[in-house]
Amino acid sequence: MTAVERPAHPGPAERVPFPVVDEIARHCLRDGEPETVHIEVHLPGPVDPARLRTAFGEALARHPRILMREAPGPWYRRRYEWELTAGPDREVVTFPAPGPDAVREARTRALTQAPSLTLAPPVRLEAVPEAGGTVLVLTVHHTALDGPACLRVVATAAELYGGRDNSPAAPPVRAAEPAQAPAGAPSPWVRPARVAPGSPDASPGNGLLVAELGLPHRPKGAPYTVNDQLMVATALTLAHWNRDHGARAAPLRITMPVDDRPRDLTMPIGNGTRLVEVTFADEELADLSRIDMAALLHRTATRTRTLKSLPRPQLGHGAALLTAPVMPVTWRAAATRAVRRAASPWTSTTLLSNIGRIPYPLDFGAEAGRAHAVWFSAPARMPRGLTFTTASTAGRLHLALRWSRALLGDGDGARLRDLFAHHLHSTEVPAP
Questions:
Q1: Which of 301, 253, 245 shows the shortest CA–CA distance to 281?
Q2: What is the pLDDT along the chain (432 residues), one digit of tens a residue?
Q3: Residue 87: which CATH number?
Q4: Is 90 part of any domain?
Q5: Beta strand ranges found along 157-300 (DSSP E)
Q6: Residue 1: helix, strand or coil by DSSP?
Q7: 88 within domain boundaries
Q8: I need a labelling partner for 360 at 20 to 30 A (CA). Which of 167, 188, 368, 417 fits?
Q9: Diameter of the chain by CA atoms?
Q10: Which of 209, 219, 148 shows the shortest CA–CA distance to 402?
Q11: Which residues are CB-neighbours of 226 under 8 A, at least 6 positions away?
């Protein structure tokens, strides 16, 4: 990232209507399951509090779309609106006291305490000392923006803090694929499998487990990507889990966010991913001991490439109809929640959000250093109840499992992690 002039900041009275994704999320907020994205950036060295506050504040100013709050309005208004502000409404960066449980407690806050939508920005950053280094724990209100957008702001803060280039790496170049129907995919009208219940906890909200794994080997020139290997590993993990828990056979449907935004300073800040659904027939995963892994990877690659190439609104055509401003927003909220409840049996089995290789160095300079691990986790509300989020940094895969405590417990999370690691390793097909 090269030095740029600070952009002109919108006036405090400027308002922007909620996009479709933001409005649907706003309609469906629930106190017991906060709609947060959690991000952890692990640095090898300490940070200076004053410098970090200054750098992050300047980064917010360079990405002014993040400086927003929900504008008040009467019950009969037709739209929710974001009010763009001249600066933060509160202190965004905090420094919890060090301690053996400080990072765990910051993670818990990220899952249980969403930033307020009525105070700008809808993000908070906790800098937690750990073993001579620092863990930056960011909590993002997913109604306002997603993980990749927030990471773009962190990359700007890293450059301002450390004075080193944090330009994004060039994305991999892949041949364009023609749009066609996904090969061999089951009908989207068939009810997908649900994640079988484990040993849920009595407490509300989400549980979280993070793990560091090796990146799966992929033969040079293979027609599938690491993302396809992660998709197959997720499907096999859930098929294995459901079989062990006596769940009925049904197709697995895995939601996959696709992000086509640039990663430089022009990246739009907000919720910018579109969701596609990759389906696996129950016959494909019926006998885990006799799967033709090469064939399954090839079929999965065809499906994911095709789904990525097909034009589609972020949440589908139905969401655009639900958010059309023809009725007061409170009426649309009630209708949206009713549709969501009615459609819950057709909700996908799980979500796999693969951030991929972190495109920025996230280099905070000589003392704090360059990030050696970055974890993300996505909300895991019911009826889906479980999400897998992956990213790779420094040649390692960083996996976050997040689940609804109404569905699973901590021991279940550990079992799912072990299954995922096992099945990810099984996708390492030797070159022919």
A1: 253
A2: 333 333 344 444 699 999 999 999 999 998 888 999 999 999 999 999 999 999 999 999 999 999 999 999 999 999 999 999 999 999 999 999 999 999 999 999 999 999 999 999 999 999 999 999 999 999 999 999 999 999 999 999 999 999 999 999 877 666 555 555 555 566 767 899 999 999 998 788 999 999 999 999 999 889 999 999 999 999 999 999 999 999 999 999 999 999 999 999 999 999 999 999 999 999 999 899 899 999 999 999 999 999 988 877 677 666 777 778 888 999 999 999 999 999 899 999 999 999 999 999 999 999 999 999 999 999 999 999 999 999 999 999 999 999 999 999 999 999 999 999 999 999 998 866
A3: 3.30.559.10
A4: yes
A5: 206-214, 252-258, 274-280
A6: coil
A7: yes
A8: 417
A9: 65
A10: 209
A11: 215, 216, 218, 354, 356, 392
The number of domains in the chain is 1
DSSP 290: G
The Cα–Cα gap between 283 and 139 comes to 40
Radius of gyration of the chain (CA): 21
- pTM for this prediction: 0.93
Residue 46 · residue 340 · CB < 8 Å? no
Q: Kindly give the residue spans of alpha helices, DSSP state H, lying in 223-371.
A: 226-244, 293-309, 317-322, 329-343, 365-368
Residue 22's contacts (CB-CB under 8 Å, 6 or more residues apart) are 80, 82, 143, 144, 270, 271
User: How far is it, in rounded angstroms, from Cα 403 to Cα 413?
Assistant: 8
Q: For residue 92, tell me if it sits in a domain.
A: yes
Closest residue by Cα to residue 148 from 29, 212, 88, 63? 63
Q: Domain of 28?
A: 20-162
Which of the 8 DSSP states describes residue 372?
Answer: S
Contact status, residue 231 vs residue 352, Cβ threshold 8 Å: yes
Strands 93-94 and 123-130: parallel
- The C-alpha atoms of residue 247 and residue 236 are separated, in whole angstroms, by 14
CA nearest to 350, candidates 416, 285, 253: 253
Q: How far is CA 397 from the centre of its chain?
A: 15
**Distance between CA atoms of 340 and 111, rounded to whole angstroms?**
22
**180-198: burial string, b at 16+ Cβ within 10 Å, e else:** eebeebbeeeeebbbbbeb
